[in-house]
From TrEMBL:
Native species: Cyprinus carpio carpio
A Pfam family that the UniProt record links to this protein: V-set
First-listed, main subcellular location of the protein, grouped into a coarse class: membrane
Keyword annotations from UniProtKB, A to Z: Cell membrane, Disulfide bond, Glycoprotein, Immunoglobulin domain, Membrane, Receptor, Signal, Transmembrane, Transmembrane helix
Record has Transmembrane as a keyword: yes
Protein name: Ig-like domain-containing protein
Gene Ontology, cellular component aspect: external side of plasma membrane
């Protein structure tokens, strides 16, 4: 009898875990890779479907952390509250309040540095959830690449042509 009862309990446990998993509580995070350049910015995505928000926006909380669990930004009941934000993210994080009502809680990190290359974790909690991990890669900026650009062969040809004309005249 006891054995029978515990089997039923186990069954219920498995069903509830499956249900929780189905609603996203235990589901694997979405993994995204984003590339940015030194001095520029990068957008880290995190959203729930438009249809899930409706008029429940104040029921959603969004927590952005880095892989060292440092606070990047929080959006509580559609209000950005970056108190206790880690100093290295101060004045560098943009949120998009117009996008909240579409379920889009993406953030933008400005003035990228090489040391920003790491993982950023987003958790949306509320009537529906999201868990997204963005892996940021930071490469040397446009300026660096521009300075090292070699002149094209057409430009070299035109230059030699002009110099030849000048010397002949
Ligand atoms: C979670 O957010 C990511 C990034 O915006 C998106 O690709 C994914 O579809 C979202 N998952 C759910 C269940 O809404
Ligand atoms: C969010 O901001 C709105 C408008 O400024 C305010 O009415 C509301 O109380 C705030 N909610 C929280 C949880 O701070
Ligand atoms: C969410 O908002 C950001 C910032 O405006 C934008 O770059 C991104 O494309 C938006 N994502 C979706 C799924 O609309």
């Amino acid at each position: 009898m006891f054995y029978h009862k515990s089997l039923i309990q186990q069954g219920w446990y498995i069903i509830s875990v499956l249900l929780l998993d189905f609603t996203g509580a235990f589901s694997d995070p979405v993994r995204v890779t984003v590339k940015g350049f030194v001095g520029e910015s990068a957008v880290f995505p995190c959203s729930i479907p438009d249809s899930e928000i409706q008029d429940k926006i104040e029921k959603f909380n969004v927590h952005w952390r880095d892989n060292e669990d440092k606070l990047v930004c929080d959006i509580i009941a559609s209000n950005r509250t970056c108190t206790d934000q880690d100093p290295k993210y101060k004045f560098r994080v943009e949120t998009f309040p117009d996008e909240y009502k579409k379920g889009n809680f993406s953030i933008k990190l400005n003035s990228l540095q090489k040391t920003d290359a790491r993982e950023y974790i987003c958790h949306i909690t509320g009537p529906s959830q999201n868990h997204t991990i963005t892996e940021l890669h930071v490469e040397d900026g446009q300026h660096g690449r521009g300075n090292h650009r070699k002149p094209s062969s057409t430009m070299l040809f035109i230059s030699f042509f002009l110099i030849a004309i000048l010397m002949l005249s």
